[in-house]
Amino acid sequence: MTDKTTLLIVDDDEDVLTAARLLLRRHFGRVITQTDPGKIPELMAAEAIDVFLLDMNFAIGRNSGKEGLHWLGDIRQRDPNAVVVLMTAFGDLNTAVAAMREGATDFVLKPWQNDRLIATLRVAADLRHTRAQLSALTAPPPEETMIAGSASMQRVMKMVERVAGTDATVLIRGENGTGKELIAQELHRLSARSDAPMVSVDLGALAESLFESELFGHRRGAFTGADSDRAGRFQAASGGTLFLDEIGNLPLALQTKLLRALENREVTPLGADQEIDVDIRLIAATNQPLEDMVARGEFREDLLYRINTISIELPPLRERLEDLPELARFFAAQAARRYRLPAKEVPAKVLQRLAQWSWPGNIRELSHTMERAVIMGERDALAIEDFDLKSRQVDAAAETLNLEENERRLVQTALQRYEGNVSRAADALGITRAALYRRMEKFDL
Ligand SMILES: Nc1ncnc2c1ncn2[C@@H]1O[C@H](COP(=O)(O)OP(=O)(O)OP(=O)(O)O)[C@@H](O)[C@H]1O
């Protein structure tokens, strides 16, 4: 079966679902069945559904068709291109007509005739594919958008523009998810090498045993499993840019080889006896303090000097909250497009709350947070309840200016640090023992 259509059948009668599933799975790529129409939004968020086959009457004893019409409207609102076929057991032409007016593609009567049902759904699936092709043709081309309105990001972008055109090695520093790879792409895009590829290697995601062959390539038979020659990423990036993410993860022996490759502009694949010339511009990224690693003997000092000719520091999101509103709205719109959901507004109240969170995962975390909220949100505008922010921590961050809360926290920290020794804790806090006892009582510590 090569058909790629995904059908979702929703009917509260298990027997109807079983019969439909048995029949239709022989004709369509994937058949999902569901008794509860309330699950439709969740399913639409999780799966790319091509055709909906939807019952008109859900609650037992009701036959007005209103439930079917309600869900039809809901589906069409979430995905204006959705193709929905309605089923009704009552042959109620009025409801069927109303459904067609509301945007249903077709309707079938229960009990259905197998051939008719298959033919109807086949036409519906074709319609879906045509609509998808049309919207792909009219959709704007995907582009990497960089939001960088804050003063600190403006400084970063100036630096990027200044160094992109040179062949200088650049080290991008910043916490996880601050956009290091996006900056590397921008450096490459603005460089004279932009017609050649930028090849990325994430040294944080790769098994250490694979580093060498991944970077420098190998010859057939160089190790068990090397059953053919393989070019390394250095070679693949030749003429272009090599982006080494998480460079702090490179073991010392390979740091030596990397340094040699950069200095001599040549690499030796594993198992080869001859070097290969490579012409790359290196961009490296790290979230580790490489200077400290040098001090501990974990990172070669000469390699650090070699790679940080230019060093670009990306500030964490919590230090550029001016960018948060635009980023949040951008990711909300992106998620709505991706999941074919209606666009959702991000009210100021929500933005204020988001600004209180510390965003340890930075922009990547914000993007996932917005995506989830857009999927979960049931209204036109996002609400605070749509977010799964670990609320305890948000509250702590929100209340850091609360004097009493801070006093309590300090008293607690002092007592913990001095393992309950009241004299020493009082000393550290700069108050008398009696004053500390009073506070311990007040805060019930
Ligand atoms: N300024 C920005 N504007 C818009 N999107 C951004 C921005 N910065 C980062 N992103 C997006 O956030 C996500 C994380 O960015 P990226 O992968 O570049 O971060 P990173 O610092 O390289 O992460 P890691 O340290 O985990 O490798 C990506 O989806 C990226 O497109």
UniProtKB/TrEMBL annotation:
<dbReference type="Pfam" id="PF25601">
    <property type="entry name" value="AAA_lid_14"/>
</dbReference>
<protein>
    <submittedName>
        <fullName>Response regulator</fullName>
    </submittedName>
</protein>
<keyword id="KW-0804">Transcription</keyword>
<dbReference type="InterPro" id="IPR011006">
    <property type="entry name" value="CheY-like_superfamily"/>
</dbReference>
<keyword id="KW-0067">ATP-binding</keyword>
<dbReference type="Pfam" id="PF00158">
    <property type="entry name" value="Sigma54_activat"/>
</dbReference>
<dbReference type="InterPro" id="IPR009057">
    <property type="entry name" value="Homeodomain-like_sf"/>
</dbReference>
<dbReference type="InterPro" id="IPR003593">
    <property type="entry name" value="AAA+_ATPase"/>
</dbReference>
<dbReference type="InterPro" id="IPR027417">
    <property type="entry name" value="P-loop_NTPase"/>
</dbReference>
<dbReference type="GO" id="GO:0043565">
    <property type="term" value="F:sequence-specific DNA binding"/>
</dbReference>
<dbReference type="InterPro" id="IPR002078">
    <property type="entry name" value="Sigma_54_int"/>
</dbReference>
<dbReference type="InterPro" id="IPR001789">
    <property type="entry name" value="Sig_transdc_resp-reg_receiver"/>
</dbReference>
<feature type="domain" description="Sigma-54 factor interaction">
    <location>
        <begin position="146"/>
        <end position="375"/>
    </location>
</feature>
<keyword id="KW-0238">DNA-binding</keyword>
<keyword id="KW-0805">Transcription regulation</keyword>
<dbReference type="InterPro" id="IPR058031">
    <property type="entry name" value="AAA_lid_NorR"/>
</dbReference>
<keyword id="KW-0547">Nucleotide-binding</keyword>
<dbReference type="GO" id="GO:0005524">
    <property type="term" value="F:ATP binding"/>
</dbReference>
<feature type="modified residue" description="4-aspartylphosphate">
    <location>
        <position position="55"/>
    </location>
</feature>
<dbReference type="InterPro" id="IPR002197">
    <property type="entry name" value="HTH_Fis"/>
</dbReference>
<dbReference type="GO" id="GO:0006355">
    <property type="term" value="P:regulation of DNA-templated transcription"/>
</dbReference>
<feature type="domain" description="Response regulatory">
    <location>
        <begin position="6"/>
        <end position="125"/>
    </location>
</feature>
<dbReference type="Pfam" id="PF02954">
    <property type="entry name" value="HTH_8"/>
</dbReference>
<dbReference type="InterPro" id="IPR025943">
    <property type="entry name" value="Sigma_54_int_dom_ATP-bd_2"/>
</dbReference>
<dbReference type="InterPro" id="IPR025944">
    <property type="entry name" value="Sigma_54_int_dom_CS"/>
</dbReference>
<keyword id="KW-0597">Phosphoprotein</keyword>
<dbReference type="Pfam" id="PF00072">
    <property type="entry name" value="Response_reg"/>
</dbReference>
<dbReference type="GO" id="GO:0000160">
    <property type="term" value="P:phosphorelay signal transduction system"/>
</dbReference>
